[in-house]
Design goal:
Radius of gyration: 25 Å
Distance between the termini: 51 Å
GO molecular function: mannose-1-phosphate guanylyltransferase (GTP) activity
Helix content: 10-25%
CATH topology of the largest domain: Spore Coat Polysaccharide Biosynthesis Protein SpsA, Chain A
Keywords: Nucleotidyltransferase, Transferase
CATH architecture of the largest domain: Alpha-Beta Complex
Largest sheet: 6 strands, antiparallel
Protein name: Mannose-1-phosphate guanylyltransferase
Low-confidence stretches: 166-173
Length: about 450
């Protein structure tokens, strides 16, 4: 069985910590067994490794998230890159063609797709493993996992099993039921009625034979080669896999999971799983109850006399919300700005200031951090010049093939169309002031990614 983890999200529901470059699965606010801060994707990948499923797993994500994904789970994790965000039907279709044409996976192989950010017990992944038997022993098109509800939630979709048990008694001993129909986000009263009919929460886990999705694409007239489908990716229907495939399938089975499961997609649910009420600089007064402060900037934040509240601060903005109202935040985020904080494979970038002036000039000031022994690519800007002030650490710098050692206090001028790179010998921080004409489109051109490539091809002897 091959596992595909879907990593998407627009970064709105956990604003301001999440943004278009760093959506919820990358926020390091949870803790592992060693009391280290980890993200949702790091936690899930660790659970897959513990269940011995990681070696057969892939992560499907958009091109904009590849770098942060590699920085968090490592370079060796196989990533299926999507040209753009286009909902789960397109993502799963592309992943299927990658497995088929790029990895040479057989058409009769079972593929299981699941979100990259479920907050579950380790036992959940044993249920995932069992889906392969359900697919192999039954005649269904798809096998799902349904979570046994703990309350009548109106936030989730429901899977309603049929009254009839599978005709094959041996298959029934595998613990699955056939699916009658689906109900999306009912009222609480309807949810109570559905639960009385043994309905389960839909947790977004699908298993199928690889041939099933490949055949669907062929019927729809799309290529089944990964590179070819990438070229036509924008033509794929922008719709969920549930609506386009699952609800139209001739036969669907469901396996129930009885255990801890939670969607950590909003501040009220995420803070329930945080072991600390406060992350970052600031103070929460003693009379605050059920209040959380998450602060990613260096300015202290004081929360006094407020209960059932989340205060979240990042370079992208400041949020103060009642926990019960926090799911509504996505309706109020419409700021015309790009991400102000990004994680990269080599470190991080924080935008300190972004200004445009009447004479057409634009000036962006950044603070970047480079991890020890990491480097940025060998690159040049077509329409921007930069001044770097090194404020921390030591490193090696290349500019148009000229090599030099640099350290805190050095100031480097990088004109437009000048190739350059830097590698950190110790952890480094640099203030970058980038200037140019706002109407001139700046193109970042990268030649080499690794320092060894640069040493072989760029450094003048």
């Amino acid at each position: 069985m091959k596992l595909v983890l879907l990593s998407g999200g627009s970064g709105k529901r956990l604003w301001p910590l999440s943004n278009d470059a760093r959506s919820k699965q990358f926020l390091k606010v949870l803790e592992n067994e060693k009391k280290e801060k980890v993200s949702m994707v790091q936690r899930v990948w660790g659970q897959l490794a513990a269940s011995k499923l990681a070696e057969s797993s892939y992560i499907a994500t958009s091109s904009s998230q590849v770098e942060i994904m590699r920085s968090q789970v490592g370079k060796d994790v196989p990533i299926i890159e999507e040209p753009e965000r286009r909902d789960t039907f397109a993502a799963i279709s592309l992943a299927a063609t990658y497995l088929y044409s790029h990895e040479g996976v057989r058409l009769n192989e079972t593929v299981c797709v699941l979100p990259v950010d479920p907050y579950v017990d380790n036992h959940f992944f044993e249920v995932v493993r069992g889906l392969e038997n359900v697919i192999n022993l039954s005649n269904v098109d798809l096998a799902l996992i349904g979570v046994t509800p703990t309350y009548p939630s109106s936030k989730y979709g429901y899977i309603i099993p049929s009254d009839n048990k599978p005709s094959n008694s041996n298959s029934y001993s595998e613990g699955y039921l056939t699916v009658s129909h689906f109900y999306e986000k009912p009222t609480e009263a309807m949810a109570e009625l559905l639960i009385s009919k043994n309905a389960l929460w839909n947790c977004g886990v699908f298993a199928f034979k690889l041939s099933y999705v490949i055949h669907l694409l062929e019927v729809m007239g799309f290529p089944v080669e990964y590179k070819e489908l990438c070229k036509q990716y924008s033509s794929l229907p922008k719709i969920s896999f549930d609506y386009e495939v699952v609800e139209k399938a001739a036969s669907v089975a469901v396996v129930s999971y009885e255990g801890y499961w939670k969607d950590l997609g909003t501040w009220n649910t995420l803070t329930e799983e945080m072991n600390s009420q406060q992350i970052g600089k600031g103070i929460i007064s003693d009379d605050c109850e059920n209040t959380h402060l998450i602060n990613e900037i260096d300015i202290p934040v004081s929360v006094v006399g407020l209960s059932n509240v989340v205060v979240a601060v990042s370079p992208d903005g400041i949020l103060v919300t009642d926990k019960s109202a926090s799911p509504r935040i996505k309706d109020f985020i419409n700021f015309n700005q790009g991400p102000m904080y990004e994680e990269r494979e080599w470190g991080w970038i924080r935008i300190l200031d972004d200004q445009s002036y009447n004479d057409g000039r634009c000036v962006i000031t950044k603070r970047i951090g480079i991890t020890k022994e990491k480097n940025i690519s060998y690159r040049m800007h077509s329409s921007r010049e930069e001044v770097w002030t090194i404020v921390k650490g030591e490193g090696e710098f290349i500019q148009n093939g000229n090599f030099m050692r640099v350290s805190a206090g050095n100031v480097l001028h990088i004109p437009m169309k000048t190739l350059h790179s830097i590698r950190a010998l110790t952890p480094m921080e640099i203030i970058v002031v980038q200037t140019g004409i706002g109407q001139e489109r700046n193109q970042l051109i990268e030649l080499y990614q690794t320092w060894n490539e640069m040493a072989e091809n760029c450094i003048k002897v």
